[in-house]
Write the structure tokens for this entry.
Amino acid sequence: MSTEAVDAVVIGAGHNGLVAANLLADAGWSVLVLEATDHPGGAVRTAEVTEPGFRNDLFSAFYPMSAVSPAIRGLRLEEYGLRWRHAPEVLAHVLPDDRCVVLSRDLDRTAASVEAFGDGDGDAWRRLFEQWRHIREPLMEALFTSFPPIRPGLKLLRRTGTAEALRLARMLTLPVRRFGDELFTGEGAKLLLAGNSAHSDLSVDNAGSAVFGWLMAMIGQDEGFPVPAGGAGELTAALVRRLEARGGRVHCGRPVREVLVAGGRALGVRDAGGDPVRARKAVLADVPAPTLYGELLAPEWLPRRLAEDLARFQWDSATVKVDWALSGPIPWTAEAARGAGTIHLGTDLDGLSAFGGELARGRTPRRPFLLLGQMTTTDPDRSPPGTESAWAYTHVPRGTTENRAALDRRVKRIEETVEANAPGFTALIKARYAQGPAELAEHNPGLVGGAVNGGTSAIHQQLFFRPVPGTGRPDTPVDRLYLAGASAHPGGAVHGGPGSNAARAALARAGALGAGYAAVIRAANRAVYG
């Protein structure tokens, strides 16, 4: 029997793998995507897991980073059936005492909301947003480019000037709590920044957390937190339709057992059934770095220093998530929260600090910080008229083992937290679907131990430290093998950056100057790994 052969094999049909496959197919390559589970999409999936007619996003749900990502925008997925929808308001942070600050795409509304917490904060928010608008284009280009982003970096420097660039660099290193204190007097604006930083695994007191809070808040102000009409899975479906229109193929339920290497070069893969697939030009792995290097690649191809660095690889916190089918909208006492797609709930600024500190010490936080999604409020297609499809998640320490009783206790605590600011909420629950760290990893092997970010977002594992100290590029020590998942720069969230970077690296290696490209990468690897 002849060996199956294509130009490129992509391991994993998560959104990064599908972005990479599309870009390679655009270049005329034959592409085969092999997915271990029975469904494409990775953490971008929708299913009716609570009640018939209720469409629940099993993992990710809101996509602000997709809205600004050059990789996603450049694919023009709207031509393949994708439609975006928005809630009336982007986000609300509800404090335990029922005060509420709102982030809206209407700048005047956001400014008024933060002004109610501190005199002058409305104007300060406008100035912060104006700074964002001034640097958005070159900053996004730099963020999503393989490291070092020389051309977009120079473009950003020309846009800002040296003095402003230095102040921007300082801001990007700050803890978000300090950043908020420097700009605002009241708690409202500070909470919008701090709560958004908590979408990562960073504490509000961690160096580097300011950039996450600022970036998410500014994107929310500018673009909102959009969702695909009909469910997160519609984003995946559009990626698959686009790929198939260009001749690419996705095989689900076909795990990869190993990457085949000879002479230091990736030649293809072998699936779990033992069948080889030859890759004439490249193998791209949309899997966590420890999975690629620790399971799919033979140890002989791993430099000693890389293996040592991988032993220090840090995952992000684990997650507990519950989806609900509700008989009606959540009855928030704070009326401003009723129209928000995303809700931050359970703590004030000091509570966020305590929450992060307890996680850092390996303790389950006494007062959970919740991220909650009101999906029917955002997209009426998610459940029958008059009802609500909703979810909430919180972080728990890495290594947490949840039996069913422990998971049920955590879900009860989550529901009690919502009930405290929305009396009558629990009476609306028709059905629930809970996932702890074990369930998340079982349903999506890429979410190792319930980690949703492909590794910590802390500054020591970003840029050229991601996934380990190195080049910050998708290239690996094996020629024509590329890391295309969230463990690679620029990291987690649904923006397609790692997949796009991996595809562009593969195209560069296969191009007319490919031999020179390979020589540069070999030299860089020797300098880093010996």
